[in-house]
Amino acid sequence: MENRVVITGIGIYSCIGKNLSEVTESLKRGKSGIVLSPERKDYGYRSGLTGYVERPNLKGILDRRSRIMLPEQGEFAYMATAEALKTAMLDTAYIASHETGILYGNDSTAKPVINSVDIIREKRNTMMVGSGSVFQTMNSTVTMNLATIFKLKGINFTVSGACASGSHAIGLGYLMIKHGYQDCVICGGAQEVNLYSMGSFDALGAFSAREDEPSKASRPFDRSRDGLIPSGGAATVIIESLEHAQKRGAPLLGEILGYGFSSNGDHISNPTADGPKRALEQVIKQSGLLPADVDYINAHATSTIAGDSAEARALYSVFGDKCPWVSSTKSMTGHECWMAGASEIVYSVLMMQNNFIAPNINFENPDEDSKKLKIVTELKEQEIDIFISNSFGFGGTNSALAVKKIKNK
Amino acid sequence: MTKKEAIDKINYFLAEEFEIPESSITPEAVLKDTLDLDSLDYVDLVVVIESNFDFKVQPGDFQNIITFQNFYDYVTGKIGLNDDDKR
C-alpha cells in the first residue's frame, strides 16, 4: 500500500526574510535580497553580488557544544527547522517517542574547511583546529548537527545534488514515506554565503556583473539577463504520511503528488532542455495530472542566458500554448543553490496558502524562448491548486516536485 | 608572570571557552564536572592551553588532573613557575 504524503511544516531563513511572515511580505512586495559585497570585490571576485543573509546569534539558544559544531549554513538550517517544527506542531516530547528522520540538501562547507587547513598549515598541529571543526567540515554537517540537536531517530543523511539538492532531499523523503519506510521526515536545503563559498563558481563567469544595480541584477527570463547571483540561507519542509499527520492533528499545508527526476547525460555545466523536460513529464505522469491541471510553475530559472532559455524550451515543449503561470523567485532571492529546491517549495506553499503568485521581478523584455511563457511580472492574486517546482544542477541533475492544495481538512 | 597571574589567566580563558561563571572555579573543584567536559572538550582544552601558553600538551598529560589546583600546578610547572616563584 502506498501512503499519501503531506507537508505539515515549513520554515525559512533567507535573504528576503528570517521567518515565514517576513518572507511572505517580501514575496508579495517583490523585494530583492541582493547586495554588493565590497569584501568579495577585495577578494578578487569578478562579481561581488550576493544575497545577504545575517548569521543568527544562537548563544543562549543552543549550548556551547552544539554551537561550536555548527557552520554558518547549519545555523541557518537550525533556524528554519525550529520554525518548521513549530508550524508542524512537533515538539521534543513527540519526537522522542516517534521515529522522525532528516534528509537535507547541502553540497559544500567551504569556510570551515579553509579555516581548518589554514590553522594546520600555520601551526603544524591538527589538534589546534579544535573539536568542532570536523563536524563543520563534513558535507553532512547539517544533518549530523540537526539530528543531534533535535534528537532525531529516523533516517539521517545529507543529499548532495548540486543546485537541486534541496529538491532531491524532499523527493527522497517523499519516496520514503510513500512506500512506508518512514512516517515523518524533516527535509530541506541549506546554503552557506560566506566569502569563500562561491569563489570557484565565480571563476566560471556565470555571475551577473550588473553591480551598479544589485536589486535589478537577477532577472530570470529577461532578454538582458547576464548571469545568476549566488545567495543562501536554509529552508525546511516537514513531510508526513497523511495518516500520521491526521492522527496527530497536524496542519495540512499541501500534498506532494510526485517527484520527477532525470539526468541530462551530457555536459557538466551546459544546460539542456531535454533533461528538465523528462523530469517534468515524469512528475506530471506520476502525479496523475494533465499539463493543464497545473496552475503555477516555480521555475528554476537562475538568470543565466543558457539556463533560462533551456528551461523555457522545456516548459513550452511540455505545456505548449496552455502554459501555466510561471515565475522565478530567484529574481528576488538570487540563486540559493543547495537550498533552492527546498526554499522554492516553501515560497510556493506560502503563495498557495495566501492565494497569490509572487512576481518574477526585473522581467522587462522577453527573449525568443521566454516570450512563449506566461510569466508573472507583478504580484498576482491567484488561487493555486497545483504547482510544480523545478530544480536543476551541475552534472545535469534535474528534479521536479508537484504539490497540491488540501482543501478538505 | 607570577603564579597568581598565571592562575587568573587560566581561570579567565577556561570560563570564556567553556562558558561558565568564573566564580564557579575554585582550586578544590573538579575540573571535569565544573567545566562539564565530554571527550571532545579535551581537544578544546588543549587548544586554549597551547594558545595561551608556550608549550605543547602531550598525550596523557591530563590523566592525573582532577581538580583545578592540579590543573594550575600542571600549567605553572610546564611554564617554569613553582610555589616559591614570586616573580
Plain-language structure description:
The complex is a heterodimer of chains A (409) and B (87). Chain A folds into two domains: 5-247, 3-Layer(aba) Sandwich (Peroxisomal Thiolase, Chain A, domain 1), CATH 3.40.47.10; 258-404, Peroxisomal Thiolase, Chain A, domain 1. Chain A has 16 helices and 15 strands. In chain A, the strands form three sheets. Chain A has an eleven-stranded mixed sheet with strand order 5-4-6-7-1-8-15-14-9-10-12, with helices on both faces. Chain A has helices spanning 20-29, 38-42, 64-68, 72-87, 92-97, 110-123, 133-137, 141-149, 165-178, 199-202, 214-217, 242-247, 274-286, 305-319, 330-333, 340-354, and strands at residues 5-14, 34-36, 49-51, 101-105, 156-159, 184-191, 233-241, 254-263, 296-298, 325-327, 356-357, 374-375, 380-381, 386-393, 397-404. Chain A has 409 residues and is of the alpha/beta class. The longest helix of chain A is centred in the N-terminal third of the chain and has 16 residues, at 72-87. In chain B, helix 1 (3-18) crosses helix 3. The N and C termini of chain B lie close together (6 Å). The mean pLDDT of chain B is 92. The interface between A and B is small, with 9 and 12 residues.
